[in-house]
Design goal:
Layout lengths: L5 H28 L8 H31 L8 H16 L9 H23 L6 H11 L11 H5 L7 H29 L5 E3 L6 E3 L3 H18 L8 H35 L3 H6 L3
Antiparallel strand pairs: 1-2
Helix pairs in contact: 1-2, 2-3, 2-4, 3-4, 4-7, 5-7, 8-9
């Protein structure tokens, strides 16, 4: 019996009903000859109605399963979530138009749950298509779902549906939110590297000795201060874990740079002041030992 398709059962049932209806018609003709009251045959009419409803229901099941099976072979990067979502919502409307009589049937509830689960899974897939998702986030997803899989360009929708994403919508949202925040941090750190890789000191010659003196650069100092504030803000984020070492390293580098520049300017100012006194003044210079 398990190997018999639902439509085969319905076809067989339909043939039986047709035979019974034919017999009923024959009996009806016979009773007319003898002027006998004809039974209403309510059960037969109910059976005919249910078979028609079952036919509509299983046609809908075939349509939904066929669409989902076609989607399953779609490569991960080519999944058009919006189109699939619209089609699933259309299925959901058609399913509820089948009538109240079918809603208590297991086949109906199974179909309804399938469409709802697919809709939820598609929302999760849309979230996971976020460019912020990295390999570490897929690993976190595997830990959450308890399913191991290889994520690459050949991964299909079927592979993702095996994760039963509809059961982990909240966990997926958390992973995606974390990934987005980490991408923002990653962007800040890349900008820091680009900024300080190209940052250069500018010098101006001392008026009398032509010794190169570090020029006061307001843009450099302002950038240094702003970047230190940025790093401090990153350290207060609850998503800092993955970048903690790198952010701490940058904090140390910029702190050292800040301290060195301050000392440099202090030494430079002191030297310039003393140079003008001990070397710039002829009287003092003459009194100094050779």
């Amino acid at each position: 019996f398990d190997s018999i398709k639902p439509h085969q059962v319905l076809d067989a049932k339909n043939i039986q009903i047709q035979q019974m209806e034919s017999l009923m018609s024959s009996i009806s003709d016979s009773t007319n000859l003898f002027e006998v009251n004809i039974p209403d045959y309510k059960h037969l009419k109910q059976c005919r109605k249910e078979v028609c409803l079952l036919k509509e229901l299983w046609d809908m099941i075939d349509l939904v399963n066929s669409s989902i099976n076609n989607w399953k072979v779609t490569k991960w990067r080519n999944i058009n979530v919006d189109n699939m979502d619209l089609e699933c919502k259309s299925f959901a409307k058609q399913i509820w138009k089948l009538g109240k009589e079918v809603r208590a049937w297991d086949a109906f509830m199974g179909l309804d749950n399938t469409v709802k689960n697919i809709l939820t899974s598609l929302r999760a897939v849309s979230e996971l298509q976020n460019p912020a998702i990295r390999e570490r986030h897929w690993n976190q997803l595997m830990q959450a779902t308890g399913v191991k899989f290889i994520m690459n360009d050949d991964t299909t929708l079927e592979d993702l549906l095996k994760l039963e994403l509809h059961n982990f919508e909240e966990e997926i949202q958390g992973i995606v939110d974390k990934a987005v925040k980490e991408m923002d941090m990653e962007k800040v750190l890349k900008e820091l590297k680009a900024t300080w890789t190209g940052m250069e000191f500018h010098y101006e010659p001392h008026p009398r000795t032509m010794v190169p003196l570090l020029r006061s650069d307001e843009d450099l100092i302002e950038t240094l201060e702003d970047n230190q504030v940025q790093l401090q803000n990153l350290m207060t984020s609850k998503y800092i874990a993955f970048f903690l070492e790198e952010v701490s390293d940058w904090q140390k580098k910029l702190s050292i740079a800040d301290a060195v520049i301050s000392i440099w300017f202090e030494v430079q100012r002191t030297w310039s002041h003393l140079e003008s006194i001990f070397i710039g003044s002829e009287d003092i210079r003459a009194q100094l030992p050779k």
